[in-house]
Amino acid sequence: MNTDRNEENPCGSVSSVFVRVPRSSRVTQMPLEMRIEVRAEGDLTEEERKQLSWPWDAPERDFEWSEPDWCVLVWADGQVVSQLAIAERTCVVAGQPVKLGGVGNVIALPAWRGRGFTSRAMGRAAEFMCRELGVEFGLLVCEEDVVAFYERLGWQVVEGPLTFDQPGGKATWPAVAMVLPCGEQEWPEGVIDLCGRPW
């Protein structure tokens, strides 16, 4: 895991971006300030972890998941309104080692959805993974109904199959896998082994 720290930000934030965005009518009509930051997962306080333990409304998958290395937090009105997690991993694809940035736990609070917060989090995650972590590809797993959303952000569906570790041995992801190229390299078609638990 990248352990570089900004001396001006000892909490582990890699950077913050401030943007003025219009408010939803569900909240109020005044503009608000949005902040996006990348944090090392280990630097989160217990109070922050409790705040980020939101109810999950995606279909349940009976798998054991890996812990993230980083998280992207989108703040508005003094609270986190969207978040995602990033795992660094060297996996094996078609027999070749590939350095990946795994994106997971992509979610926004219900009252703040449909306003671009998650798209901004995904954009910051892509920038962080490709430029600062130096991965070759981003990789995420998802359900069919959100594929179009990720495709609009530049992600591409790959065939796989995608396998990963579970307590009982290797398992296969039953839905969709998508990648985001960080350079000109082409994705090697073939079996994807995450070499660990999924993210």
Explain what you see.
The chain is mainly beta and 199 residues long. Helices cover 15% and strands 38% of the residues. The chain is built from three helices and eleven strands. Strands 1, 2, 3, 4, 5, 6, 7, 8, 9, 10 and 11 form an eleven-stranded mixed beta sheet that branches. β4 and β5 form a beta hairpin.
Termini separation? 15 Å
Q: What can be said about the biggest beta sheet? A: 11 strands, mixed
Secondary structure tally, helices: 3
Uncertain stretches of 5 or more adjacent residues: 1-31
Taken as a percent bin, the fraction of beta residues is: 35-45%
Give the mean pLDDT: 84
Radius of gyration from the CA trace?
17 Å
> What is the structural class?
mainly beta
Structure summary, number of beta strands:
11
Q: Considering DSSP H and I runs of 4 or more, what fraction of the residues is helical?
A: 10-25%
Overall 3D shape: globular
What order do the SSEs take from the amino end to the carboxyl end, as H and E?
EEHEEEHEHEEEEE
Key features of this structure:
mainly beta; 11 strands; 15% helix; eleven-stranded mixed sheet; disordered N terminus; 199 residues
Summarize the structure.
The protein has 199 residues and is mainly beta. 15% of the residues lie in helices and 38% in strands.
Strand and helix map with partners:
Layout: E1 16-21, E2 32-40, H1 46-51, E3 70-76, E4 79-93, E5 96-108, H2 117-133, E6 137-142, H3 147-152, E7 156-158, E8 162-166, E9 169-172, E10 176-181, E11 192-193
Parallel strand pairs: 5-6, 8-11
Antiparallel strand pairs: 1-2, 2-3, 3-4, 4-5, 4-11, 6-10, 7-10, 8-9
